[in-house]
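TASK: fixed-backbone design
INPUT:
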């Protein structure tokens, strides 16, 4: 098993929190030996215990989405380089991260009304908690655009939490690694985004 057991999480609720906070995921499938990866928002339906998403029908990956086909969805949480300088003990450089891999089988949703409902539910989820916009199922634009997407669910889910958080360090160093992860993900992101937008 990789990573080592102390970097594995079996806490489903924590994995679900990663999925909720970071819904832009990597959808990984394969067809005739060719791998396909697309970055799309994917949400978790706690009532049905399924992942739900939709993809542009013009995407070549659609050909690999057939009922019963295997798929893996990768959700990436915060990550950061951890310098040995933060520790109280002698350590080597490392990289900490939160990742969740969810594997299951594809179930295509061909009914346009069902596809529209998944879009409404996803929009409601993404608009939370302010709900400044509400997608209407009866919106005429939905009728025009729904045929350009392929909605689908992923069922029979298997969860893997890969939480590398310096769990193998002493309590003080573990705390310092947590603080570094928080600091690097709050201080650097604004400057990075400003740079990209220039």
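OUTPUT:
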């Amino acid at each position: 098993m990789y990573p080592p057991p102390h970097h594995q999480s079996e806490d489903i609720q924590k994995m679900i929190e990663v999925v909720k906070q970071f819904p832009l995921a990597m959808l990984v499938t394969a067809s005739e030996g060719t791998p396909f990866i697309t970055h799309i928002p994917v949400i978790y339906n706690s009532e049905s215990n399924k992942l739900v998403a939709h993809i542009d029908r013009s995407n070549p990956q659609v050909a690999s989405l057939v009922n019963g086909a295997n798929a893996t969805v990768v959700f990436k949480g915060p990550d950061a380089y951890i310098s040995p300088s933060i520790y109280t003990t002698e350590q080597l450089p490392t990289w900490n991260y939160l990742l969740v891999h969810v594997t299951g089988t594809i179930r295509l949703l061909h009914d346009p009304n069902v596809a529209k409902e998944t879009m409404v539910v996803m929009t409601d989820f993404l608009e939370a908690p302010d709900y400044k916009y509400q997608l209407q199922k009866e919106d005429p634009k939905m009728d025009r655009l729904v045929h350009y997407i392929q909605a689908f669910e992923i069922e029979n889910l298997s969860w893997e939490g890969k939480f590398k958080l310096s769990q193998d360090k002493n309590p003080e160093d573990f705390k310092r690694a947590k603080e570094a992860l928080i600091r690097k993900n709050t201080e650097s992101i604004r400057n990075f985004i400003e740079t990209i937008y220039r």
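COMMENT: Residues 12 and 159 are 7 Å apart (CA to CA).
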